[in-house]
Design a protein that fits this description.
By secondary structure, this protein is of the alpha/beta class. Helices cover about 30% and strands about 25% of the residues.
């Protein structure tokens, strides 16, 4: 058992919130777009957030009501975030990689009443409207009654009369492959300016400054948990978010130099791609302002992290957490170099590693990782999944297997649910398998994650055709293309298998149990041979 340090919120005289920063430093930049240089000051963000809270009320959305966001990275995303944090609404960020049926499922499941999107996603909007006919739509760069800018401008900049803190519900896949919303519990203090736990973790754990000097580079899409959570925390601390429109390795380095970035957030794929730049490209930029580089979201290969520490110095810090927000570990570079592969000690929540019988295991023994915490979320509309994640003592797991050493450092070993993490994105194979076996020429299918130097893991589909002889004629090239064409309209691109392997049978027992471990071990062995 390993406990995290308790968080002590600041006193009233130390109020840290964009509302306060807009009052004391209205001209300080809150957000800068890394590519275009377009920016929004705290004063502008405050006015826009008040307008959006007014807009939500004018559309009939009260505390607890849901609206969804399907947007690229752009300044207005923070108008929505902070407007919702004043209106007490439930904000549902939607991955822009999803297909129309997947998006529609989330909108219906979350009981979304309003969708905020942009012209960039007009191609999927028609199909979404068909599946969600009752949802109101506002479009950035839109026209007429659905133009977001016009609707926002029509609202007053005064705060709404009934301000309260909002919630954000992120979606991840469920046990059946359907996405499930992680619904956080309402805060004990509903005031919009009340401190949140991540502030303490940012300051005490990650060492982020509270004097407003922070310049934070956010290279990932805002619909992910880490970018939206950490960048919002930067705003609470009075810093400036430099948001990349899209990650490119050299562009990220250029942004650190141009904006004198002090803090940043990454996934291992970013590291891999930056390390693959030519030496001249890597050393061209002045990174001396860079003080803290956080990374998470996927296991980072030990050699990759070692190379990053050699390049950037001992500023590379790692944390382990999940969208559920039930706990967090953190490890700094020096600690990690002493224990390569660890994700650190708990700084939020209490770790318990348990065996199949639920009993806690001693140090060094692998088991299911639980976090003990006073406030735990639920899975929206899925009491069974919520119950499955709970320990009889009230602890919660996100399904990872691992162990702690004698000093309380956590090491991740496996994933109970066979989840694949590719490029920092969680992918559940069951959805892909269900689609594959629905094809007329597929007898059986298993989807696994195989080691990948760039993505961390790549999605591999091991398929048993009905007629193996037909596939053998050309090595499976034609059948692979047929399956890709079949999956494409129904599956987000990130979930599309990068590799197909055709076999006469899969390692399945007569009782129906599929031994994915055998397949994963086989592909892992092949990866080691290729190194």
């Amino acid at each position: 058992m390993q406990r995290g340090r308790p968080y002590e919120p600041p006193g009233e005289s130390d109020l840290m919130h964009p509302i306060e920063h807009a009052r004391t430093r209205p001209q300080h930049p809150a957000v800068i777009m890394a590519g275009s240089g377009a920016q929004m000051t705290y004063g502008e963000m405050d006015n826009a957030a008040n307008r959006f809270a007014q807009l939500l009320r004018s559309r009939g959305l009260g505390p607890g009501d849901a609206f969804a966001v399907l947007l690229e990275n752009r300044l207005e995303y923070y108008t929505l975030i902070w407007g919702s944090q004043r209106a007490g609404t439930l904000m549902v960020p939607v991955s822009t990689r999803l297909t129309a049926p997947e998006i529609a499922y989330i909108l219906n499941d979350s009981e979304t009443r309003l969708l905020i999107t942009s012209r960039k996603y007009a191609d999927v909007l028609a199909a979404i409207r068909e599946r969600c006919p009752k949802i109101d739509v506002l479009m950035m760069d839109g026209e007429g009654a659905e133009d977001f800018a016009a609707a926002l401008a029509a609202q007053p900049t005064e705060p709404i009369a009934d301000q309260s803190a909002g919630l954000t519900m992120l979606y991840s896949s469920g046990t059946t492959g359907r996405p499930k919303g992680v619904r956080p519990r309402p805060p004990e203090d509903p005031s919009p300016t009340a401190p949140v736990a991540l502030m303490g973790l940012a300051v005490m754990g990650a060492g982020m400054p509270t004097d407003g000097s922070m310049v934070y580079l956010s290279p990932a899409p805002l619909y992910h948990a880490a970018p939206i959570g950490w960048s919002s925390t930067v705003h609470r601390l009075g810093g400036t978010v430099v948001m990349m429109e899209k990650f490119e390795p050299e562009t990220a380095l250029a942004a650190i130099e141009k904006y004198r970035v002090t803090d940043s957030q990454w996934v291992p794929t970013h590291f891999v791609r930056m390390l693959k730049l030519d030496e001249a490209e890597r050393t061209r930029y002045d990174l001396s302002s860079h003080r803290r580089a956080l990374h998470a979201a996927a296991p980072c290969p030990v050699p990759i992290k070692q190379a990053m520490i050699e390049w950037w110095g001992d500023i590379v810090n790692e944390y382990y957490a999940g969208s559920e927000g039930i706990g967090m570990t953190l490890v700094r570079s020096a600690e990690w170099l002493e224990r390569p592969g660890t994700v650190g000690k708990a700084i939020f929540g209490t770790i318990h590693v348990c065996g199949p019988d639920g009993e806690e295991l001693p140090a060094g023994r692998d088991g299911l990782i639980y976090f003990e915490n006073a406030i735990l979320p639920t899975y929206h509309n899925d009491p069974d999944k919520t119950a499955e994640a709970m320990h009889p003592k009230g602890w919660m797991t996100i399904g990872d297997i691992g162990h702690v050493d004698e000093e309380g450092y956590l090491f991740l070993t496996d994933r109970k649910s066979h989840m694949i993490i590719s490029g920092g994105v969680n992918i559940y194979p069951q959805e892909v398998e269900n689609l594959l076996v629905s094809h007329d020429k597929v007898m059986d299918a298993a989807v696994i994650g195989a080691p990948d130097a760039d993505l961390g893991e790549r999605v591999v589909a091991v398929v048993q055709p009905v007629d193996m002889a037909e596939v053998a004629a050309d090595g499976g090239a034609a059948f692979e293309q047929e399956l890709r064409d079949y999956l494409s309209p129904q599956l987000a691109r990130i979930k599309m298998p990068r590799q197909f392997d055709f076999r006469p049978e899969l390692p399945r027992e007569a009782n129906g149990k599929l031994y994915k471990r055998e397949l994963r071990d086989e592909f892992a062995a092949k990866a080691r041979e290729e190194v």
